[in-house]
Amino acid sequence: MTHVTEDDLDDLEFDTLRTGDHISAARRLSELAESVSGGVSRANVLLRAGEQWQHAGDHARAAELYRAAVDDGGETYGDPRAYLADALFELGRADEARALVERIRSERPRDPEVYRTVAEVLYAQGDAAGAHDWATSGADVVLALRDRVVGVGAGTGSAPEDADASFTPGPEDVAVAEDSLEALLRLRYRARVDLGRAEDDYDALLDDLLKNA
To answer: Average pLDDT of 161-186?
Structure first.
């Protein structure tokens, strides 16, 4: 067994950004997934391996690794099914990809990064309306978390109707979620421009975030 930490994985990916050798990184991560122990889950390593195969342009191998991460069921960042949907779109299997996206939505995720990932996938496929909806829902998740912790109406919209009312967030949850807010609002704004929609309160919130950055 091989003890692997998040820092080890980050270092490997940083080196890959420098060298551009995504295939070697994907192979190394795939090997690590079979022997990993300790600091990270096997599913997390599989997910990272899939990303490297996708960066290398091998979407079929990427889909295989993403599916393995889903089947493993271990802890990962985001939702491996969102990454699998991306690979399936690239493989021309749009119906399967959209079915995965709908399945994710039906499970009411409260991680804003899941919404961001799906929104980016849909936007890359030319689905500006779908990207707008997912980015808006993700922003609402962040704003609802903020409102529930701070206790004031800080959001521009309301919590999603399917939000998990049993979840009790803490300040740490809000801090992590806030990191996703600007990216969600930026993507939402790009989708609105593509759709020819006028600016709204969410766009004003983005302006405020950028001014205070």
So the answer is: 68
